[in-house]
Amino acid sequence: MTPPSSARDLRVTGVVQGVGFRPFVHRMALRQGLAGWVRNVAGTVEIHVEGAADALDRFQRDLRLEAPPVARIDTLEAASGTLVGFRGFDIAASEDADGNRPVPPDVATCASCERELFDPADRRYRHPFITCTDCGPRYTVIEALPYDRERTTLGAFEPCPSCAGEYGTPGARRHHAESLACHECGPQLWLESLDGRRWAYNETAVQLAALSLRRGAILAVRGVGGFHLACDATNDVAVRRLRDRKHREAKPLAVMVRTLEAARAIAEVADAEAALLTGPERPIVLLRRRAHAARGGASLATGLAPGLDRVGVMLAYAPLHHLLLEGAGVPLVMTSGNLSDEPIAIGNAEARARLGQIADEFLLHDREILSRVDDSVARVVDGAPLLMRRARGYAPLALRLPVPAPRPLAAVGPHLKNTFTLARDGWAWPSPHIGDLESLDAVAHWKTALARYRDLFRIAPEVAVRDLHPGYLSTRLAEELGLERTIAVQHHHAHVAAVAAEHGVTSTVVGLAFDGTGYGDDGAVWGAETLVADLRGYRRVAQLRYAPLPGGDLAAREPWRAALGYLSLEPGAEASFALAFDGVSENERRIAERQVARGLNAPLASSMGRLFDAAAAVLGVRHRSGFEGQAAAELESLAGERVAHAVAMPVREADGRWVIDPVPMLAELGARRIAGEDVHALAASFHESVALAAAAIAARAAEAHGADTVALGGGSFQNARLLSGVRRRLASCGLRVLVPRLLSPNDGAISYGQAAVAAAVLASE
Ligand code: ZN
Ligand code: ZN
Ligand code: FE
C-alpha cells in the first residue's frame, strides 16, 4: 500500500443501506489500495478514505459507476478530510442520527443465491432463507435504522461460526450481509395442520407441501411481506375451491412460476415484460395468456382470470418459492392470504385464525414479518412499465416533491385502494398499498403502517391532508391525527398533481383524470374530468354529461344501472339500449327508474368508469360485476388490438365548461350490436371513441389555456388501449404527455398527489 498522501470524507445518500453498500465500498477501497472506514449513519453512508490523490478520485468515480444493482445514489458529497494514518479499511459500527432515512425495499433472491440454492455442493443447498448482501427481505424485517442485523427480525437468530466467518470476511459475498442465515443457524420452516400439529420441518416440510399442492390442496404460505394462499394453477377444482373459500368470485388470481421460460410457457412475454418480471422488485406482471400451453406444459385453469385475455404472472422472489415451485412442478396460484378485501395476514397466529377457513395446511416459519406488504402489480404499455399496485419491491422508497413541504405532512389518501404519504422537505414517502378503508381491520392496518413510517423515517407531521369528501373514513382518520391544520384536496386534482409532481412539473398542465368516482367540489360524483391545473389549484374545464346513477355505490357492481342512467337522459334511445337489461328483473328496473325519476339515491355522475360499465351493458357484455372495473377490463380484452373507427361524441358548452355527451355514441354502438355486428369490433370502436373525445378535449383545453403539457391520471388509464390511444393522439398534436411511472394511475397515487398539492399550497402562503 502506498503511503497515504491525502484523505477524503464522503457522504452518500439514497438507497444505500441493506443493499450491500458498505461491503461494496470496502471492495472498492481495497481495489484502490485505500485505508479508512465506512459506516452507516442513520440513512446515509459515511466514508473516510486515505491514499494517493488519483486513487481517491478513481474510488469516488467507481462508487457511482459500480454501485450494487439495487442501490440508488441520490447524492454523493465529498470534502477533503484529515489524514489520520489508518492502516487497512474497516466497516465501522453504525451510528444513529437524524437525517434522511431511506429504508431499502425487499429484494428478490439474486442469481448467485439461486445458484447456490440448487447446488448440492453448497453449504446452503436448499436452505429456504438463503440471502446475501444483494438480496433478501429488508423493509419487512427492519425494526429501526440504521440497518444492522440486531435491528431486524433476523436478530433473533445468532449466526453460527461459519456464517459469522463469512459476515466478517472482506470480499466475501456475505461480508456484512445482515440477513445471512444457513441450515445451522437460520429460521425454521414447518408444515402445520389445521389442528395446530407441526408434522414436518424444513426440507421435509417443503417436499410434503409440494406434494399436497400437486394433490390439489390449498396452502397458506408465509412469505416475505405476508401470507399467500397457494394452489396448483393448472387444477380447475383447486382454483374453484380457493375462490369459494376466499369469497373471491371473479377477481383474477396471480400465478407464480420459477423461471422466465416457465412464464413463457403460459403467456406471451415481450422484452420489456421480461425485464419487469426478472427485476429485483418482481412485481406481478399482466401478460397475454397463451390459449394453449406450450409444449410440455399444462394449461392454466380456466377460472384464474375469467373473461380476460391477460393473466398476472410473477417469478419466485424468495428461496422458499423456488423450492416449493421446483417441488410442485406446476405453476402455482399465489394470491394474497386474506379473506376477500381484508389486509393480508403476516403473523402465524393471525394466519391460523384468519386463514383456517380457507387453507388445508400451513407452511410457516419463525422469521417475523414487521411490515405487511402485498405483491406489486404492473403491466407494460407502449414498451414501458405501468404500476397498478405499488407495494413490495418499491415501497418504502421515497419520491421527490417538486415543491418542498415547508412543514412535515401526513396525507391520508383516498377511501379505496388507499395508500398514505408522509412528506418532509423535498421528499415524500408513499406507503405500500393498504387497500380499501372499509373494514376495521383495514383501518387498524392503516394506523399501524402510519406509526411505523413515522418511526422509521422520523417524521412528526404538523399538517394533515385529506380528501374533500366530508364523510369518508379517511377524513375522520385525518382529524384523529389531531394536527393543528388540515388541508382538503379534491380527488381528481390529486390525480393530476401526482402525475405532474412525479415528473417534477410545477407549471400549469391540462389534466385528464378518468376514474370511477371522486367527490366533486359541486357535490356530484366526478370521474371523467378535464382540469387545467397546477399543484396549487385547478379549474374544471370539461366533464362528461352528468347522468344519474340509480342505487349510488351499487352502480359500480351493476353496470346495467349506469346504462339506465344514460337512457334516462334520452328515453328515445330505448331500442338501442335493449341489451343493457338482460337478466335484470322488472322489479329491479322499476325501482331504479323510480330512483332516477325522484332523484333519490341516484347521484349525478360524470364518471369514466361508469361510462365503460354502461358500454359493457349496452353491448350485452356484462350486467353485473364481481369487482369494480371488471366490465372495463373485459371490454379491453374484447377490443384487443383491432383497428376500429371512433364514433364522435357531441360537445356543448354549459356553465363555462365543455360537456361531452356519450349517449348518441352508446346508442349507435348498441344499435349496431343488435343488428349483429361483432362485439369485438364494437368494443374496439368504443375505446377509440373515448380516446378521440378525450384527446380532442385536452388539445382544445391546452390551446385555450396556453398549456403544452397534458397529464394523464386516474384508474381508467390502467386500460392500455385507452392510455395508448389518448397519448398517441395528443403526442401527434405536439403536446407533451405525462404518464404515471413511479406510481399507479389509480387511487394508489392519490396520497402522493395530496402531499404535492398541500406542499405547494403551504409554500405559496
Ligand atoms: Zn443473493
Ligand atoms: Zn449459519
Ligand atoms: Fe381516482
What's the structural blueprint in terms of helices and strands?
Blueprint: E1 6-15, H1 21-31, E2 35-41, E3 44-51, H2 53-65, E4 72-80, E5 89-91, H3 111-117, H4 161-167, E6 189-193, E7 198-201, H5 202-214, E8 219-222, E9 227-232, H6 236-246, E10 255-257, H7 260-266, E11 267-268, H8 271-278, E12 284-289, E13 310-315, H9 319-328, E14 332-336, H10 348-355, E15 361-365, E16 377-381, E17 384-389, E18 399-411, E19 421-430, H11 440-457, E20 463-467, H12 473-480, E21 485-489, H13 491-502, E22 509-519, E23 525-533, E24 538-544, E25 547-548, H14 559-569, H15 586-598, E26 604-607, H16 608-618, H17 630-639, E27 651-654, E28 657-660, H18 663-674, H19 679-705, E29 709-713, H20 720-732, E30 736-738, H21 750-763
Parallel strand pairs: 2-5, 8-15, 10-13, 12-16, 18-20, 20-21, 22-29, 23-26, 24-28, 29-30
Antiparallel strand pairs: 1-3, 1-4, 2-3, 6-7, 6-15, 8-9, 9-14, 10-14, 11-12, 12-13, 16-17, 18-19, 22-23, 23-24, 25-26, 27-28
Helix pairs in contact: 5-9, 13-21, 14-15, 14-16, 16-17, 17-19, 18-19, 19-20
Bound molecules: zinc ion (2 copies) and fe (iii) ion.
